[in-house]
Write a structure and sequence with these properties.
- The chain has 311 residues and is of the alpha+beta class.
- It folds into 2 domains: 34-230, no CATH class; 243-305, no CATH class.
- Helix content is 28%, strand content 40%.
- It has 6 helices and 11 strands.
- It has an 8-stranded antiparallel sheet. A 3-stranded antiparallel sheet has the order 9-10-11.
Amino acid sequence: MRRVLQAVLTASLAMGACLASLAAEGSSLPNTTERPREIYKALNALRIDSTQIYAVSEIRLRRDAVSLIFSDGVLGFLQAYDGRVTGVVFSGRGHVSANLRDPAEKQSLAHFLGVPLLDQSFSSAYLRFDDGSAEEILDQLRRSGANPMSADDFVSTWDKSVANLNPAQSTRLLVDWVAETPVPFFYAELVDERWGAFDILIDGRRTDTVLIGQDRWAAGNHFYDVWASFAGSNASPTPPPAFVPVSYTVDTTIENDRTLEGTTTIEVRAGGVENALLRWKSRAFSRCNPRRMPMVTCSISFRTRRSPKTR
């Protein structure tokens, strides 16, 4: 899942950085506006806030068809960035369940888990979000009378893990960070002794807003098993496409040794939230026609060799 998210959203970062640098020529960005790459790096650098660690019991979150219970353990918040808390980590005993209605999704779960429902325990959890989850958890902690505690081992252990886990989710958070209209996002990587690590994703930017699945390797190959993927009950209208293709060209040459070399060039116009990455509030774009949004051209070179057995 991390690889998929990174591959899709890296284009957003690259295009945003490119256009932002153009905007900076002859014009400075307002002090309150940061370039996408700077925000992305800051979101990646977040670690456990040692002043916001709690012993927890029966903390509950429900996101669409998925219910999470942090039954007993230690929970820590990530450091805030720009006044926002975008994640928590947990070690202890927890439970996740999902009530699926679609027979096809139940069948899919049964294929992977042996039963047509998600009803799993977990011993650790890494959550990233921008949907108000931090405030919801803090409210439950306040009502339970919980107070911050010191847990140096918890911090040092999780700091090593979040350094690797943050980048994939930071790309998605970045999209909302610079969007004119953010769309709620919630992600959880849960670790179960039997099944290992698996993902829960609730993302309003996806057509199937709810996804449950797992990364795995087999025979040296990487796979992502989609246990279930469906439009949740709170799904909003499909957002505009991230990028709209404008034109493309394919230029190829067949060499004497049967090698095919070529370059594919595609021109895309940013649509939806990606325009927020490209249209910075600076004088450089103040005269842009909104019907002619910034376009980016990407080229991909390739080379293939025909098998001698193929005629």
